Amino acid sequence: MKGKTYIIAEVGVNHNGDILKAVELINKAKESGADCVKFQTFRASKIATSISPKAEYQLNVTDKNESQLEMLKKLELTYDDFKFLNSKCKEIKIDFISTPYSFEDIDFLSTLDVKHIKIASGQLSELEFINYACSKKKEIILSTGMATLSQVCEAVEVARSHKIEPIVLQCTTNYPSRIEDANLLAMKTMKKALKVKIGYSDHVLNNYACFSAVALGATVIEKHFTLSKYTPGPDHSCSSEPKEFKELVYGIRQVEKSIGSSVKNPSISERKNEYGMKRSLVINSSLEKGDVIQKEHIDFKRPKNGLDIYYFKEIIGEKLRISIKKDTPLQLKHIDWR
Questions:
Q1: Which of 205, 235, 256, 318, CA to CA, is 20 to 30 A from 242?
Q2: CATH number of 6-259
Q3: Which CATH architecture describes the domain 268-336?
C-alpha cells in the first residue's frame, strides 16, 4: 500500500512582491488540499547581475525591456515578510518551505521552525551551497532540472556527509515543459542508483505527469500555484489555479488508492462475484448410470456450483454412479471413481 504523497503548492514568486497576495495564496493552497506551500527567499542582487538576461520563457510573459535583475527586484519579499507568512502557515496548519538563494537566506530560514530546505535545480551543482544548507540539519529536498545523474549523485553525497537522506525530485527546467520531456523513468533510475526517496517537480500544464509520477513511486509532488494564470509575472501562465490544484490533489489521492499492494489475490469486494462469474463442469445432455463420461458430454457453465474446471481431464473416461439430467453441475459424488 502506497503512503500518502506529500503535495507542495509552489507559490514561488507568484505573490508578485505583495504580502497580502502571498497570504491569500497560502489560504487557497490549504483549501485546495496542499500539504505544504513553498516560496522563494532571495535578494535580487544576490542572484543576478545587472546584465543577466532573462530566460527565454521569462521573455515570453514579462516586459522584454527589463533585465532579469529588474524583474526579480519586483518579486522580492523581506525576511520579516517570510516570518509573517510562516506564522500564517502555522495558524492554518499547512507546512511552510522556502528555497534559499544565498548563504544569508539559509541562515534566515534555519531560524524558522521549518522541516525542510529546498535546493533549486539551478543550485544543484553548487556543492558548497548544499553543504552549508545541510549544516543546518534540516531535511533536504533536491530539484534536479538540467542535471546529469553524476551531478545528482554528488549533491546526494554532500547531504549524506551530514547524515541527511535527501528527497530527490525529477524536474524539467522549462516553463511550461512538454509532457514528452517529463522523463519520469529518471525517478526510478535515481532511486535504484542512489537509494533515495524520489519525487517530481512538475511544470507541465496538465496533471497527467503528476499522476504517472505517483504511480511510479513519487513520494513528493510539487506544482506551481497561482490565483490566476493571467496575472502578469514569469510563472503564472504555467501554474495551476486553485480549482486545478484541487483536482490535482484529488487525482493523486485516487491514484494512491488504486495502487494497492504487490500481492495478487482476489479483493474482498470481488469475491462475492465469484459464484456468478466463474464456471464449473456441467453435463450437456442427460446420461444414465454407468455411462462413460466423454469430452463431448461436458460444458463449462456458470455458476460455480459444481466441480472446478481443474477436474476436467480427471473425469474423462470415468463412469457415472447415478443418472443425471442435462445442465446438472457435476459433483464428486456423481463419479464412480476407478
A1: 256
A2: 3.20.20.70
A3: Alpha-Beta Complex (3.90)
Tracing cell 533510475 back to the chain, one arrives at 189
pTM: 0.91
Cβ-contact 131, 119 below 8 angstroms: no
Give the three cell numbers for residue 310.
Answer: 481443474
pLDDT number for residue 1: 59
Q: What is the pLDDT of residues 67-92, one digit of tens each?
A: 999 999 999 999 999 999 999 999 99
pLDDT per residue over 235-271, tens digit each? 999 999 999 999 999 999 999 999 998 899 999 999 9
SS (H, E, C) 84-104: HHHHHHHHHCCEEEEEECCHH
Handedness of CA 61, 66, 67, 73 (dihedral sign): negative
Measure Cα distances from 93 to 30, 241, 297 in Å. Answer: 8, 21, 70
Which residues, other chains included, contact 330 with Cβ-Cβ below 8 Å and sequence gap of 6+?
A: 280, 281, 282, 283, 298, 306, 307, 311, 315, 324
DSSP string, 238-270: GSB-HHHHHHHHHHHHHHHHHH--S-----HHH
